[in-house]
Specification:
This protein has 349 residues and is of the alpha+beta class. It contains twelve helices and 13 strands. The strands form three sheets. Strands 8-10-7-11-9-12-13 form a seven-stranded mixed beta sheet. A four-stranded mixed beta sheet has the order 3-6-4-5, with helices on one face. Bound molecules: adenosine-5'-diphosphate (ADP) and magnesium ion. Adenosine-5'-diphosphate binds next to strand 4 and strand 5.
Length: 349
């Protein structure tokens, strides 16, 4: 038990229900207005479409009548999705961010989340950091945590996100057409470099560069606003969780098309460029994953509109290639065939 904080000394043991109430439910001190905890996390979102949230056997949610319900779930396992001993705030943020990213890729508006948490121990410091990381990001997107499950065991975080979208308007992987432009938001490879820095596979003499790249791994920004803006402009979308080399073939296959990428067009951040030689930076951009940028297909004549929508969100949109008739993905560097790093992460290979 970490009882080094005076506020906590009188709370030697923390039961399951007290834990849920205190860190995730109505008993959260920031919700009750206690100033100390309020610094750690702003008030949780309270949505009027939540008829019944945390506390009963299930949540009751009111989906707008003219919308499609959109659902996604993702699990984070210690040692697999984040290094053991990662900052709890980062784990809380990432566990929701990866789900928000899936909704962003559909163009959906996120609304509600549930959280199934398996914890080795009821560690107050860990729970404070984790819940703040999760709930701060939830508040930033107007998402309410409406339920979950808490058990003891090896650290495992499972988040489900629910949202909605105007009927029939979701962005799918399958909507791309031949001749359309392939484009990505933001920059690629930063999170992969950040993870390499965290795990000691890369080193940087420049602290600011290292901090920026590590931040990109630990606190990914799901492109929710861009995804919503892309509805009606982009014809297909997916989020980049496994790296472009692993993810692009999925979009091409779903659309029944071939894809071509000019590797020299991949957007690389100044921080990434200063950390590593161009070839290494490109390898991270193509193969490392964890960037949670969006990959979209857009008709060439609409690319300008989509880039302008991105710019309004302080985001860059970079054309990197095109969709073609056929199957498979081809890569070129300065016009010559290029061997991209082998295809994406597979948990069972
Ligand atoms: P049940 O046994 O009916 O599944 P629990 O007693 O496990 O319910 O949980 C009580 C309430 O707390 C439920 O509303 C559940 O959704 C919520 N809950 C449990 N764990 C969490 C968590 N980690 N985050 C948010 N809500 C949670
Ligand atoms: Mg029950």
């Amino acid at each position: 038990m970490q009882g080094d904080d005076a506020m906590h000394e009188d709370e030697a043991s923390l039961g399951e229900f007290e834990l849920i109430d205190r860190y995730f439910g109505p008993g959260r001190p920031s919700v009750a207005g206690a100033s100390d905890a309020a610094r750690r996390s702003p008030g949780a979102t309270r949505r009027s479409d939540v008829i019944l949230g945390i506390g009963d056997d299930a949540a009751l949610l009111r989906c707008p009548a003219d919308k499609d319900l959109v659902a996604a779930v993702d699990t984070l396992v210690e040692g697999r999705h984040f290094p053991a001993g990662s900052a709890p705030r980062s784990i809380g943020h990432r566990s929701l961010a990866v789900n928000l990213s899936d909704l962003a890729a559909m163009g959906a508006t996120p609304a509600w989340a549930t959280l199934a948490l398996t914890l080795p121990a009821a560690d107050r410091r860990w729970l404070e950091g984790f819940s703040a990381g999760f709930l701060d990001l939830a508040a930033a997107h107007g998402v309410e945590l409406v339920g979950g499950n808490t058990t003891a065991g090896p650290l495992n975080i499972n988040v489900q996100i629910l949202g909605h979208i105007d009927r029939g308007s979701a962005l799918r992987r399958s909507g791309a057409q031949p001749g359309e432009v392939l484009a990505v938001t933001g920059t690629l490879g930063d999170a992969g470099a950040g993870l390499a820095l965290v795990t000691g596979r890369a080193v940087s003499a420049d602290r600011a560069v290292a901090a920026e790249l590590i931040e990109r791994f630990e606190y990914p920004t799901p492109r929710v606003q861009f995804g919503m803006a892309a509805r009606g402009i982009a014809s297909a979308a997916m989020d980049l969780s496994d790296g472009l080399a692993g993810d692009l073939p999925k979009l091409a296959r779903a659309s029944g098309l071939a894809a071509h990428v000019d590797v020299e067009r991949l957007p690389l951040s100044p921080a990434l460029r200063s950390l590593a030689p161009l070839a290494q930076a490109r390898e991270w951009a193509l193969g490392a994953g964890e960037d949670y940028e969006l990959l979209v297909a857009v008709p060439a004549q609409r690319f300008g509109d989509l880039a302008a929508a991105a710019a309004r969100l302080n985001l860059t949109l970079t054309a990197i290639g095109e969709l073609r008739r056929g199957t498979g993905v081809t890569w070129a560097l300065e016009g010559l065939p290029f061997a991209a790093p082998g295809g994406g992460y597979d948990h069972f290979r």
